[in-house]
Amino acid sequence: MSEFKKPSAAELDRMSEDELVELGTKLDGVEIAHREPRWPEEIKTRAEKRAERSVTFWFALAALLALAFIVIYIAWPWHYKGWQDDGYWYYSLYTPLLGVTLGGAILAVGIGAVQFTKKFIPAEVTVQTRHDGPSDDVDRKTIVAELNNSWKTSTLGRRKAMMGALGAGGALIGIAAIMPLGGMIKNPWKRHEMTIHGDGTLHTTGWTLASSERPDGLPAEKVYLGRDTARTFPDGHVPEGVGRLERLRIEDLAAGGLESVFPLPASALGDFHAHMESIHGARNSVMLIRLRPEDTARVIKRRGQEEFNYGDFFAFSKICTHVACPTSLYEQQTHRILCPCHQSQFNLLEYAKPVFGPAARALPQLPISVDSEGYLVANGDFIEPVGPAFWERKS
Ligand code: FES
Predict the structure, then answer these.
(1) Is there an atom of ligand 1 within 6 Å of 358 CB?
(2) What is the DSSP annotation of 310-361?
(3) Which of ligand 1's atoms lies nearest the C-alpha of 344?
(4) Tens of pLDDT along 379-391?
(5) For 314, what's the count of Cα atoms within 13 Å in the CB-facing half-sphere?
(6) What region holds the Rieske domain (predicted)?
(7) Residue 33 phi, psi dihedral angles, 5° rounding
(8) 17, 164, 279, 315: most buried by Cβ count inside 10 Å?
């Protein structure tokens, strides 16, 4: 800067934009070694029109893809469908279509920006020396002039179609990027039909079907403790009457053993798809544990849950009361259940009360019994919500 005499305010006001740009670059220690506009100012050549169409195409494509993402996100059938259900193929395309449209929109706007820079921004080689300290008035005024000049030389101002496509693409991609947040806005207390998942609120699970006080007012169903056989049918054809869950008898589990079980309503025996729904129920999984008789004798039961076990059999929700990971690591020597997420430990001999780690509440216990045929069944629902804390829970 020292080699220039700073212009006075009056001189600055008299200077044209080009002169301010030149002054600004010099004041910044910037030397423009080469600068050449890509296209002549007024005459549009065919090559220029072709370049403009190409850039406009990419921005318009970005806008279209972003719009398609928004429409698919809102209107495409996204509710879970099983392999043989009507509409399965539409449902299975939901996630790929979201990925392709949003990814394509971002890619298209990127290609358009690169093409625009290469084809319309003047070719320029500049050299700048670094300097320290804040900018003064002269610098600020000249930088504004430089920015204005950049805008003009970019020729964007006179390319209306390209500007429109760029604006639409940018706006729609912005909307598409924040739209998925809308899916997180839900009313957690809106009740739906009571199904093998519960009724959609945090107070219910598939085991609620066995409750004598069901929220839908219907009578209690018989709900077996269903063991997952992990049976699959890779060709997609499930034979009639073949289920995935199986009922358990007490002799099916050895002393000291643990089995993961899911609600298996009597009305859904042999219904493979209903069983898969049960397994996918977020709050459904339960640990059935058979203690050794000498350990059962040491058990301290929680008040109000004295009759919840059936002999040596105890059933506890698998959903950790910290932040809902599955707590299925059972150490039978110490009788502790470990949650692998943050290492909470629950003492089975004391109603699965937490004894280590961040979890603050015991795992809810499912009341169980055995029916006249010898199968293990739920003897009602949990008496408290499963999983982590939420504002409205009272226990
Ligand atoms: S979720 Fe189990 S300890 Fe955090």
Answers:
(1) yes
(2) BTTEEEEE-B-TTT--B--EEETTTTEEE-TTT--EEETTBTTEEEESS--S
(3) 3
(4) 999 999 999 988 8
(5) 31
(6) 283-377
(7) -80, -30
(8) 315
